[in-house]
Fold:
Amino acid sequence: MVYCVGHSIISPLGDGSQANYEAVQAGRSGLKIHTDRFDSVEPFCASLFDTPQAFVPLCIRSVEEAITNNQSPITNSKDTIFILSTTKGDNLDLITPAKMIAHHFGNPNPPIVVSNACTSGVCAQITAMRLLEAGMYQHAVVVGCDIQTKFIVSGFQAFKALSPEPCLPFSPDRKGLNLGEAAATIVYSQLPMANSQQPLWTLEAGSIHNDANHISAPSRTGEGAYRCLMDVMEGLSPADIDLVGVHGTATLYNDDMERIALERAGLQDTPISALKPFFGHTMGAAGVLETILCAMQANEKMVNNKMVNCIKMLSGFGGVNAAIRIRV
Amino acid sequence: MKVVSEIEIRPTSVVLNGQPIAVETTGEKMLVELYRRYAGDYPKFFKMDTLSRLGFIAAEILLKEPRAKSQEPTAIILANRSASIKNDTDYLATISDGNYYPSPALFVYTLPNIVTGEIAIRHHIQGETSFYILDAPEQLEQILLSTMSNNLKPSNPQTILAGWCECTEPNNFYAKLQIIWNN
Structure:
């Protein structure tokens, strides 16, 4: 178990976790129809920054916001590891931006980049938990970020995976996904932080499983996602889980696969949260951003300070699935 | 952490547990030669990008080893420095000005972790698959140690197919895959 000691979200909906949470609560969405971006041959619906953002400065700003509440500087410590979650990084380069971010904060350790398709943001948190639990570091700064490009938009258009309108996760009328851009950061530590202004949580368990079925289509039995759910629920019953943050891309096959996995795990009556109608699919940022917002949603559900269990799950190309369980 | 078996593939050589394997071709052609010799029954190989072919063939040879059979890996954890840059470059050519025909078949390989998925499908491995981008191969050891460290957790694999798998250009690649046990 490791402790979240700070977090931040920068998205087209606002700067800071609280601003983004309030935007979601108010029903605001970053999704818009775009006709003049990325040389697109057709209009597409996505959540994009009004002013195009450069990858590294965006990540740096996200980390700075996440550590504002920290009493002692940890980013330049040898006991801190930087972990970047991204699929396409800065113009297809993943390692150079990670090194630039760690270097900016004076961190002496070579950073780790997790590139496990759309599950990266959850996998990066699992990597952080393992490194901290093994005693190799005291703190991990997990940064998730992707910015949209002609490369990504054209690819998803070629895949016929994009919805022409705002996406509808788990709806019978869903038509596909929307892309989005954001940067989000979670700082994990071996020890809790006292007197935090933000809702914080503990990361209790994490699991990654492959469907071993198809590289671009989800399993029809939800096998990998189901195994992840069972792993992170070990020792608990479905009734102990208060909220599941689903991947909810709103593609026909993804959402159906998740429904099957949730039902097999006995979670069909558990409330779910799907955030892509607000942010689009933010790829490498998704797992980090959606974990933060799930924790903030779960925090609202707390009654009489009773802790709440929340699962965040993701699936991606390559047949990979991942889930974590947090206690808020 | 114990290395049970190891293969190294370079454009001009293949070495399995310290013993060279004779090859007649080099580069991408050598990967096809190895496919015909060690697999031959998996036409999906020809749909794969070079990075996936490299990882696929390395796993194919390694997992046929008797030492691998005695305790089969439940997880695949690979790393490299340049992600999927060779296939990214190929995909970019299909969306260039005046030649805009983006191919979904190419696009799906513009993620480095696809190779882990290809190996998982071939060998029915439904445990963890992970891909890391690192500056140096030594960093992977730390990640593997932490992954195996708590052997009581169901989600922490104890037998892993792990290693470096990188392809920067069609005939410039390097794989060093190992089967690792936690004992």
Summary: The mean pLDDT of chain A is 95. DSSP finds nine helices and 14 strands in chain A.
